[in-house]
Known about the structure:
The structure holds 2 protein chains of 2 kinds. By secondary structure, chain A is an all-alpha fold. Chain A has 2 domains: 3-56, no CATH class; 76-300, MetI-like (MetI-like fold, Orthogonal Bundle), CATH 1.10.3720. Chain A has helices at residues 3-15, 17-56, 75-78, 83-115, 120-135, 138-149, 154-162, 172-196, 200-208, 213-224, 226-241, 245-250, 258-266, 272-300. In chain A, helix 1 (3-15) crosses helix 2 (17-56), helix 6 (138-149) packs across helix 8 (172-196) and helix 13 runs antiparallel to helix 14. The mean pLDDT of chain A is 85. Chain B folds into 2 domains: 2-39; 57-267, MetI-like (MetI-like fold), CATH 1.10.3720. Chain B has helices at 2-8, 11-39, 55-61, 64-97, 104-116, 119-133, 139-163, 168-175, 180-209, 212-217, 225-235, 239-267. By secondary structure, chain B is mainly α. Chain B is globular and about 70 Å long. At the A-B interface, helix 2, helix 4, helix 5, helix 6 and helix 8 of A face helix 1, helix 2, helix 4, helix 5 and helix 6 of B.
Amino acid sequence: MTLSDEKARTEEVAANPRLERKAERRESWRGFFHAIPAYVYLIFFFVLPLIIVYVFSFASRSRTGKPELEGWNTDSWQRLGEPLVRTIVTRSVFVAVLNTVLCLVIGYAFAYWIATRRKQSTRTLLLILVLIPFWSNFLVRTYAWRMLLDSDGYITQLGEMTGLWGRMLFTLPAVFLGLLYGYLPFMVLPLYAAIERIDWSLVEAGRDLYASGTQAFRKITLPLSRPGIIAGSILVFIPSLGAYVTPDILGGAKTTLLGNFIVSQFGSARNWPFGSALSGAILMIMLVATIVYFRSGAKTV
Amino acid sequence: MTAQHSSLRRPWVERWLGINGWIVFAFLYLPILIVVVFSFSGASNVGVWGGFSLRWYERMFGNTQLLASLENSLWVALWSTIAATVLGTAAALALDRYRKWATRGAFDAIVYMPVIIPDVTMAVMLLLWFTQIGLPLGRVSITLAHIAFNISFVAIVVRSRLAHMDPSMEEAASDLYASRWKVFRKVTLPLIMPGVLGGALLALTLSLDDVVITSFVQGPGSTTLPVHVFGLIRRSVTPEINAVSTLMIGASMFLVLTSLAIQGRSND
Lengths: 301, 268
């Protein structure tokens, strides 16, 4: 069947609601058919695993680590209220929020600067220069900071020379530096996409009506770049909340974050049900944060 | 319009934006540059320049464990990229072309969720699932895990390409009595090819980069390169790691530039 046949049929259909419904149903089946392979795959390797996490979180712990799927209890969920867990969760949320804010402030000025270059070729070149670190291996980029922040690393030497800081490795500031470095490109790219699309004649109109530069920015530019702010914040906040590699390489025992804590439940601590409950909790925080953020964005735009 | 706009901005704002811009670029590039430079240093201590030398590269290529992990990485990356590209492209077509079908909203959600879920959570989910269904942990389980997160990335990239596509070409082809399959193969596919290739390169990069998920679902002897390097970094900082890192940076730069070249040529 060809599209021209379909076109003829559409005209026919417009006059006949019963045929219209039939065409819609056929269309719906075709979409479903295209989607089936990915659908089946994701149900099997994403949705069912997601459900099993919650199932395991109610299981009881066995000596081997692998939980026994009997003797169901809520012990693992109750443990989330323990002071140690609360400290780690608070610290993780604090780190994720502060990192998102830092990325947003630095990234906005940066993306704005790139997006307002006069020549298209300059903008493209600067954007490629952002894309390269964005695509570069995350582990390698974190390793770079391990090198710089170690006792004989350049940043440490610089700090000792100026007397401003000492060795930062295995402290919270080191983790912040690593996270900022790792996720800044994730913030810049969506912000750039949003700012570049802004119609500057709107800003000009605002200025013509005697708005100050600050007012024009606050009332016109900022609201117009909101989609970029939302996308960038989500792309930074969620991986920061579940960060594992960065705090593991740059942090120490006093900077354990949720990601490390979960991994240790499946390693040294051998408590899979508790690890499952923690993963289930982080998933819920993530979903709530995403929904709230999207809602707040949708309302104000 | 941009030019007029910047003339409205106060000069000190403009200057401050420029300074911030160059500081950010230095922040993004200097650490990588230092890693690369010291991979060519002859000294055994990272941070001390010991004259130009390729000894760390020689040592790297003589390291059988490292080479075995590289082979695993390439195997996993190849198969997961092929599978994710096919599945992700089909999903993108379904999402873009057919607006109404049963369970469409749920499909949207499960296609996009793997992108925003933290690595650690995804790793826990898949480990529990694989042990529960009795799948032996090894190259195959790593590949299955990589396909699961890569489908979404491919679907997003291809879908953005489809959104910019002009449907009149396809209509013209079918007006000339091309079959549905022929329209897809001769018109649709060539038009979305830059998107498909871009998605495939992104999938390849993500597969070659993954540490957390792989370290959860790997079995004995199936360690990938980044997981192996992660283990080395945790133990100590050595110039050999700098050499491996330089190789990995080189590979990702090659991939990003290839991807940009493909997208650039198709826009002309």
